[in-house]
Design goal:
TIM Barrel; binds ligand LGQLAAA5; 8 helices; 36% helix; 10 strands
Length: 218
């Protein structure tokens, strides 16, 4: 039997969007800090304001593009979300520093799934964090793509990663009401995460949100 995954709605850009996502069934909200590219970026001030309005037990994920532990800690201290989602590779895999300085904060590392090397990377990184999130960015571009691409990736590799690690796995990248059922059947993730698939002209769309939750629960 396949368990229905938790849903994280990302790119939340206002208190109203946060409320709408929670009312529709989101277990977690994504709040996108400064990024080199992507549609969901908001200010740290607004992230902090939104975080304060989110009721327990809904998780608030701060998406950070910082790669140095001190910069990640400094970013976190401006917003106090419940989870840090690191969307680029952490410098020298210094997770111990983050654990020591922020012992109560959960860490989620994004792996951008490109080829077999992503499997090796995910297995190694999974020893240090609380969850892995698979996305479809390209950190090797001159202007890095670190998420929010609206593209899917190779779900066979995602399935292999899910079977190879012992911690929860979130699947992201181009999910929408048309493909989410297939994605769940294929990867069987702990959680799913999306941004563009529930938006119209950049705004969270209640009808798309409801249709998305209906597709998951069908
Ligand atoms: O949305 C952004 O602006 C963004 C920028 C940089 C890193 C991550 C970003 N968003 C995350 O990307 C995934 C996938 O988005 P999509 O569903 O493919 O549009 C999304 O869940 C956010 O976590």
């Amino acid at each position: 039997m396949i368990t229905i995954p938790r849903v994280k709605i990302c790119c939340i850009s206002s208190v109203e969007e946060a409320r709408m996502a929670v009312e529709c069934g989101a277990a977690a909200l994504g709040l996108v800090g400064h990024m080199p590219s992507g549609p969901g970026v908001i200010s740290d001030e607004l992230i902090s304001t939104i975080v304060k309005t989110v009721p327990p037990p809904v998780a608030t994920f701060l998406l950070t593009s910082e790669t140095d532990p001190a910069a990640i800690i400094s970013h976190y201290k401006k917003v106090h979300a419940s989870v840090i989602q690191i969307v680029d590779a952490l410098a020298e895999r210094q997770y111990d520093t983050l654990r020591r300085e922020l012992p109560a904060v959960k860490l989620v590392q994004v792996i951008h799934v490109t080829d077999e090397r992503s499997v090796t990377e995910a297995i190694e990184v999974s020893k240090h964090v609380d969850a892995i999130l698979l996305d479809s960015g390209n950190p090797n571009l001159a202007v890095k793509e670190l998420g929010g691409t609206g593209r899917t990736h190779n779900w066979d590799l995602s399935r292999t990663i899910r079977e190879s690690i012992d911690i929860p796995l979130y699947l992201a990248g181009g999910l929408n009401k048309e493909n989410v059922r297939q994605a769940i059947d294929k990867v069987q993730p702990f959680g799913i995460d999306l941004c563009s698939g529930v938006r119209t002209s950049g705004k969270l769309d209640k009808e798309k949100l409801q249709a998305f939750f209906a597709a998951i629960n069908s």
